[in-house]
Design brief:
By secondary structure, the protein is of the alpha/beta class. The chain has a single domain, classed as Rossmann fold, CATH 3.40.50. 31% of the residues lie in helices and 26% in strands. The protein is built from ten helices and twelve strands. Helix 3 links the parallel strand 3 and strand 4. It is globular. The two termini are 21 Å apart.
């Protein structure tokens, strides 16, 4: 079903080239149906790349979705123009009084900072507080998952000995959970981060459960029992080439990164990687939209 976007948003043409149904605002307004309203706080450096990745996943259900991208006014964006942000992203103040069916907060390259040292932490905390009363369900990705677990439950993140980068095997740990319904017993997911969380810290915390984890990468999907907060400690939205571009970027900066694990065939960076996680990423987003947004949210927001 279609994604509803602003008429002239640059990502629109790329989505249409991939045969993803994007509906104009004019056509959407003429239909007697209420779209699910999803807000996205996109803090990833490459804005358009992340827009594409998330919109692909949100479009792969029978539900009609209206997306609003949010910008953080307390953050200095380096890889996108202010004109682009002002045209296609709204400040939180513009939507504070509104209610949304779902909220997505992306990762950000700030893992090595303490949460309170992040320049936009106060504003992000305000959004997370607002989500408890104005959003049916919030989905946190990678660094945002760690930030959300810290904000809502006081769970600390820990530095890793080296960057965790690659494609790792995961397994479902909670039987019959709706969020992982249809998952294989063992599935793959991408990770790219310098910090992690301890499974024991999560298990000692009331009200949340680990739904899937990895022996190498640790807890992957953590969810509150009421479904209001979903924490995905990885990057299910990544394209097949995202880890490769990050590896070559870091190599060009002289950082001497390790080759992403289980990613390049034969561990050879000159070989093209294969996509191993698309099906489960689509299923994760579809289950979230269906069971924790669409079936829960009121018709009149």
């Amino acid at each position: 079903m279609p994604i509803r976007l602003q008429e002239n948003m640059p990502v629109l043409q790329k989505l249409e080239l991939e045969n993803i149904f994007v509906m104009s605002e004019q056509r959407a307004n003429s239909q007697d149906i209420r779209q699910l309203k999803i807000a996205i706080v996109n803090i990833m450096p490459k804005k358009e790349q992340t827009e594409l990745q998330l919109l692909r996943l949100l479009s792969n259900t029978a539900l009609q979705v209206e997306v609003t991208f949010l910008r953080l006014v307390t953050h200095q964006y380096k890889n996108v123009t202010s004109d682009y942000l002002n045209q296609y992203y709204k400040p939180f103040s513009d939507i504070r009084a509104q209610k949304f069916d779902g909220l997505i907060i992306t990762g950000a390259p700030v893992e090595n900072l303490e949460f309170e040292q992040v320049d936009y932490w106060e504003e992000l905390s305000e959004i997370m507080a607002w989500s408890k009363t104005h959003v049916t369900s919030a989905l946190y990705l990678c660094w945002a998952a760690q930030a959300g677990l810290y904000y809502h439950y006081g769970i600390q993140k820990y530095p890793l000995p080296e960057k965790l980068s690659g494609i790792y095997q995961h397994y479902v740990t909670t039987a019959n959970a709706e969020l992982t319904r249809g998952f294989d017993d063992v599935f793959f997911a991408p990770h790219s981060r310098y910090t992690g969380i301890h499974a024991d810290d999560v298990r000692r915390t009331d009200g949340i459960d680990i739904l899937a984890e990895s022996r190498e990468a640790g807890p992957y999907i953590v969810a509150s029992r009421d479904g209001r907060q979903i924490f995905v400690n990885g990057h299910p939205e990544y394209d097949v080439g995202t880890l490769a571009s990050e590896y070559w970027r870091d190599l060009g900066k002289g950082l001497h990164p390790a080759v992403p694990q289980n990613y390049f065939p034969g561990n050879d960076p000159s070989s093209a990687p294969a996509m191993k996680w698309k099906a489960h990423s689509n299923l994760l987003f579809a289950n979230w939209l269906n069971y924790f947004v669409y079936q829960i949210t009121p018709y009149e927001l």
